[in-house]
Amino acid sequence: MGNIQVTTRILGIETSCDETAASVIEEGTTILSNIVASQNELHAKYGGIYPEMASRAHIEIIDTIIAQALSEAHVSLNDISAIAVTRGPGLVGSLLVGINTAKGIALGANLPLLGINHLEGHIYSLWLSEYNEEVEFPIIVLIVSGGHTEMLLMKNHMEYERLGGTLDDAAGEAFDKIGRLLGLPYPGGPHLEQASLNGNSSQFDFPRVWLDNSWDFSFSGLKTAVVREIQQRFPEVNMGRSAESVDLPVADIAASFQSALVEVLQEKVVQASVKYNAKCIFVTGGVSANTFLQNAIIERAGKLPVYFPPKHLCT
Questions:
Q1: Any idea which fold 129-313 has?
Q2: Is residue 47 packed enough to be buried (19+ CB in 10 Å), middle (13-18) or exposed (0-12)?
């Protein structure tokens, strides 16, 4: 008798923040389905994520999302080898919805249950991309999202050394806060990038915080500088008037802020790649979808390969 080859399929469940997602992955790299339900409309009225409402929204839709993921992949639970679920980091209430759902499915179907680190999921999204190239180690990894800004030395698969991270605001958090201040729709990050396309990045000289002799980041000072600039030049904003009614130079502020933040990211990640003799750079997380950031790092890295997930896998 010949050997029977078994196809490995993983049902992945993600509820770490404000998106309910489920996906079926075959043999570790092939995406059979990827269903994502956004809560942007729910949280837009608050200008940010309302944790209790986020967890309730997950409860309402998670079963439907999982069913859709299985249906789109043309499989049933009988075809699944294991259940994977985000175990953290993230919003506690949101995480519990996904974890408890995954536990129930795994127990009922007698399947192994795998707890996945949210940030490690960001890293391995690069191996799910269409090109799926073989890369050499070591790799400098920059994770930039709404909740995290981390730089790692990836020595091999599943082998990491944390080099540094943000001491205060994450890069994506700073994008969203400045976007809200400028009166841009939620989420602020993508809309700020769009607004910056028509702006002059030299119009405002916002600070770059380098934290010498460290791979850490700090963006609270940059955020405060932008707030102070707006309040001093346009005191009407302090009286509750909207950015639009005050006629703020939104595009110029957005471009100048984005340039200041990205310059620090690009410089540190390239410096780290030189110091640790990296074979390439991985940039992942929600902010990695920012085209200005992508172009800046690629240009600064020169001949060193730089990889980003496809935009639909950044968040």
A1: Nucleotidyltransferase; domain 5 (3.30.420)
A2: middle
